[in-house]
Structure formats: structure tokens, C-alpha cells
Amino acid sequence: LENLRISAIVERNLNGKLMDVKSGKPIAFGDPIQLRNVRSGKFITICGSVLADMERENMKTTVDKKGGSNSCLNFLPKLTYDREGQAVTDKIEAYIGIHEKPGEFLHVADKAMNFNKESKLYEVNCSLESSSWFITVRHDYVTVKGSMVTLGHPIILQDPENLSCLALDPPQNADAINYDYNVDIPVVMLSQY
User: Fold this and answer.
1) Burial (0-12, 13-18, 19+ Cβ within 10 Å), 112
2) What is the DSSP letter of 75?
3) Which residues contact 51 (CB under 8 A, 6 or more apart)?
4) What is the pLDDT of residues 43-101, one digit of tens each?
5) Close Cβ partners of 168 (under 8 Å, ≥ 6 residues apart)
6) Is residue 45 classed exposed, middle or buried when 0-12, 13-18 and 19+ CB atoms within 10 A define those classes?
């Protein structure tokens, strides 16, 4: 058990060093990546043994402080002229695959979870059915060289079908700015009207 703990620490340190080396370099289709929420600092993670709330045939997606093999994803080409190994550019449509599970994807549920006058929430889960994602680099966060999606720079992920953005869903009574993100938070698509 002690050896496993030491191995995990060594792997985390190596991942940190690799991130430092690759930070700012373009991401290519097929590269293993982790998507981290800016505010919470947590990684989007597939819960391998928990079913999704809305689409019970799919697996739940949440965020995790440490990440792991279930948070290893990759951008996959949607369009026929895009190829694996080619750089992912700003303002492009792609699929988000689960790196450890080829043929599984981050997927946006077809029906909204709840509805109010301001917004709709759509569950994000892990599915055999792919969803298209529109990838945009956050130019207001960093100075971006060219139009490439680069490691370490914030991006926005949007669902072009329902015009929603990837977000976290803190409880309804929570103050989103001061919310304690150390609890299980579903990953959702937020559609503003």
C-alpha cells in the first residue's frame, strides 16, 4: 500500500514537470489532455461506476481535485479534413473522447435537467454517442500567439446544438463566487437566454 502511495506521488510530480515543459505548446488531435475548471481547480472526470442522473445508460461526469486516468481526455477531429496529430485551432468543432476508453465521449444530454426563465441546464455525461463541441480560446485571460489551442491556456467549450457552455452546477442555494468546490459537483451545459 505504501508503494502505491509513493508511486502516485512520483507520477503526480512527473505530470507536473511534463506540464511545465509542454505549457504554451499547441495541442494536437489525439493528444492526451485533462480539462481543469478555472475557478475550482478541479479536473473533469468520468465516474466509472456511477450512472448519469438524466441518461441512465451513460456514466456520470463530475470534477475531481487530483484528476486521474478517468480525467484523461482527447480532442478528436469532427470534420473530414481534420486529422489526428494536426494542431487543434481556435474556433473549431471537435469531439471530446475518453483517452482510456476509445469509442466513449463527453456527451450532452438531449433533454434539459431543469428550466427557469433565465437558463436551461443540460447534463454532461460519458456516452457511446458523441457530441460535437465548439472550442474557443479565452483571449481575455492570456496573450495568445496565433490561433492554436495551447496547453495551459483557458478555453470555452460550447455545444453548438443548444448554444450552451460547459459549466459546474453548484447547489441552487450556493453563492457561486464563494462556493466550497470541495464537494461532488455535476458538470453541466448552461444555456442563457
Assistant:
1) middle
2) E
3) 57, 58, 59, 60
4) 899 988 899 988 999 999 988 888 888 889 999 999 888 899 999 988 889 999 999 89
5) 37, 39, 40, 63, 181, 185, 186, 187, 188
6) buried
